[in-house]
């Protein structure tokens, strides 16, 4: 029970961060906010898939599918940091 609540709260927190970052991007048009929002989009997907994998359908292993967004999101953020540093 506590695990499922924790997974749901992590997904909700990622979603709130995503919304706040994209709202900030819409106001300022700063590309770093957009890329951070994309990172949190993928982290939100990862947390939702974690909840689905461990709570809703525990008999199906979705570990590969829930790991991929967790790699893609920070990779986008890291590449944007490297790209901005070079310019």
Helix content: over 70%
| Average pLDDT over all residues | 93
Strand content: under 5%
Taking the alpha carbons of the first and last residues, their distance comes to: 48 Å
The tally of beta strands, per DSSP, is 0
Order of helices and strands, N to C? HHH
Q: From the alpha carbons, calculate the radius of gyration and give it in angstroms.
A: 15 Å
Largest β-sheet summary: none
- Estimated structural class: mainly alpha
* Count of discrete domains: 1
Low-pLDDT residue intervals, each spanning 5 or more residues: none
Which geometry do the CA atoms define? elongated
The number of helical runs is 3
Structural write-up:
It is built from three helices and no strands. The termini are far apart. The protein has helices at residues 2-28, 31-56, 63-86. The protein is 89% helix and 0% strand. The mean pLDDT is 93. The chain is elongated, with a radius of gyration of 15 Å. The chain has one domain (2-86). It has 87 residues and is an all-alpha fold.
Summarize the topology.
Blueprint: H1 2-28, H2 31-56, H3 63-86
State the gist of this model.
This protein is an all-alpha fold and 87 residues long. It has helices spanning 2-28, 31-56, 63-86. The chain is elongated.
């Amino acid at each position: 029970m506590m695990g499922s609540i924790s997974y749901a709260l992590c997904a909700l927190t990622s979603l709130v961060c995503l919304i706040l970052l994209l709202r900030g991007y819409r106001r300022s048009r700063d590309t770093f906010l957009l890329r951070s929002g994309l990172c949190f989009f993928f982290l939100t997907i990862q947390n939702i898939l974690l909840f689905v994998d461990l709570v809703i359908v525990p008999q199906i292993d979705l570990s590969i599918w829930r790991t991929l967004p967790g790699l893609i999101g920070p990779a986008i953020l890291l590449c944007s940091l490297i790209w901005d540093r070079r310019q």
